[in-house]
Amino acid sequence: MEAKKVRLTKDKETYLATLYGKAMDAAVENPILGDHFAADAVARIDYDFTELKMEGGGEITLPMRALHFDQWTRAFLAANPESTVLHLGCGLDTRVYRINPGPTVRWFDVDFPDVIALREQLYPEREGYRRIATSVTELSWLDAIPGDTPVLVIAEGLMMYLHEKDGTALLRRITEQFPSGQLAFDGYSRTMIRLISRLTSARGMKVSLVWGVGDPHDLEKQVPKLRLVESVEFLTMPDLVRRLSKNWFSGVMQGVMGRLPFYRNLIRHLRYEF
Asked: Which fold has domain 4-273?
């Protein structure tokens, strides 16, 4: 496949940064995710990826986040071999190729039309796989999805960008349409939302994070069929801490910060079932 010239506005560079972080990980001797699909995609894009500033250890945190959601995905599909996967706000993530689900799984990648158009240039078709070009909050896209199997909803890196009323309306619709399922996403605390918004604003970047998660059980009240089954404090996951602790000092700081409740709750990986 020939390299494609990709011209992106600043807000779309987020998709490339996430892809590049996984490609960087794939190039190291002991990778976290080992996503050679991401590495191949980066090689086919005519873009100077060195312009992307991978600050905060993105080449570690991004593949570590993806690996955890991959693990949840594999566990769900092992328990539900005939099922549907809704990968919401998929960006350029290659999860469907990493997981390689069986023929009885229907997999839908959903994102804005310009993102889906880029995916179509980069990634091949496969059995049981469809791309849907729409905003996830335009609920009419769900009309074409059969609701006759258990569903896994993956919303990695998405929910913080949605307005709460739109996000809960989407989840209520999904829980009404499917007989059972799970929802997995990374929830940012309200403190994290404010921190990132201020940081990006100071750098002249336009990043609109709006939905912060306080008590994860609050979503159970807003979407009555959901029940929280797992809440993982991402920033204190042992493998992540070990990878980020590149020297004695950073290791000590990771240990100190990990004892602070506000820090532990900045980012949580949340899994619900219905």
From this structure: Rossmann fold (3.40.50)
Percentages of the chain per state (helix, strand, coil), in multiples of 5: 50, 20, 35
Instruction: Report how far residue 32's alpha carbon sits from residue 25's, in angstroms, rounded to the nearest whole number.
Output: 7
Asked if residue 28 has pLDDT above 70, the reply is yes
Distance CA 86, CA 112 (A): 14
d(CA 208, CA 206) in angstroms, rounded, equals 6
How far apart are the C-alpha atoms of 239 and 127, rounded to whole Å? 34
One-letter amino acid for residue 82 of the chain: E
Select from 80, 68, 63, 75 the least CA-distant residue to 22. Answer: 63
Residues whose CB falls within 8 Å of the CB of residue 271, separated by 6 or more in sequence, listed in order: 72, 182, 183, 184, 228, 229, 230, 231
Q: What is the pLDDT of residues 56-77, one digit of tens each?
A: 788 999 999 999 999 999 999 9
Beta strands in the chain (DSSP E): 4-5, 45-46, 83-88, 105-111, 129-133, 151-155, 181-188, 227-233, 267-273
Burial of 56 (C-beta count, 10 Å sphere; 0-12/13-18/19+): exposed
